[in-house]
């Protein structure tokens, strides 16, 4: 290959990599204008002359969430939906509260890697690598420990102590998204045909109906 072609290929690869997610910012910020009807990949920017400190401020992450639910778990997100100044910046924060033995059920963030740290309690974390290995990478974290859930992999958290637990995560998207495995598979609207699920999970249809009934 001549050197020009090599140079072009390298440039193209760099461009593709750079374009895989949000392009680099071309301005200081793009505070989300929730009222704009413009359809873009993300949210439209408000007039920068109207931007104030409040658009970059969220208060309340010190407050515990309500874990009185069957999972014993609560999420307090600070994503672009709560904090408009995060728009286009590719980062967000989330607080998790866990009752004793509470569980953050198996889920995936389609647009973000997550880095988690424990503020209180002992939390078991785990993610599963992709096919064909499907290897569970899991650990019990103590206060101050940090763990990573790589982008797009199924993961969970569980409070393995008899007291409440608290953790904070940073995620690499202002809108990380969440796909909860159980609700996607058994709680979709309309439901996935029993036959598809029975074959996928290699169980009979009554087991599938039982699982679907939970949603
Ligand atoms: C917590 O959630 C439960 C169940 O939804 C509700 O009954 C209870 O009032 C909530 N507690 C607080 C302090 O909001």
Automatic annotation (TrEMBL):
It comes from the Eukaryota. It is found in: Secreted, Extracellular space, Apoplast. Oxalate binds at residues 109, 114. This is Germin-like protein. Disulfide bonds join 30-45. GO terms for molecular function: manganese ion binding. Residues 1-20 form the signal peptide. Belongs to the germin family. Pfam families: Cupin_1. It comes from Olea europaea subsp. europaea. Its main location: secreted. Mn(2+) binds at residues 107, 109, 114, 155.
């Amino acid at each position: 290959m001549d050197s020009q072609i090599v140079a072009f290929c390298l440039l193209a690869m760099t461009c593709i990599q750079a374009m895989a997610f949000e392009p680099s910012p071309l301005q200081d910020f793009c505070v989300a204008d929730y009222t704009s009807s413009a359809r873009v990949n993300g949210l439209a920017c408000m007039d920068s002359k109207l931007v104030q400190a409040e658009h970059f401020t969220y208060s309340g992450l010190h407050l515990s969430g309500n874990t009185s639910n069957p999972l014993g778990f609560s999420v307090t997100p600070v994503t672009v939906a709560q904090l408009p100044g995060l728009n286009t910046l590719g980062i967000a924060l989330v607080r998790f509260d866990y009752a004793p033995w509470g569980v953050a059920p198996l889920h995936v963030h389609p647009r973000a890697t997550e880095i988690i740290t424990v503020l209180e309690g002992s939390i078991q974390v785990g993610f599963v690598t992709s096919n064909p290995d499907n290897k569970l990478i899991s650990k019990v974290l103590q206060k101050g420990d940090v763990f990573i859930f790589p982008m797009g992999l199924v993961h969970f958290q569980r409070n393995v102590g008899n007291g409440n637990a608290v953790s904070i995560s940073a995620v690499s998207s202002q809108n990380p998204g969440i796909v909860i495995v159980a609700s996607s598979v058994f709680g979709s609207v309309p439901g996935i045909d029993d036959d598809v699920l029975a074959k996928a999970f290699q169980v009979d249809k009554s087991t599938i109906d039982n699982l679907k009934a939970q949603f």
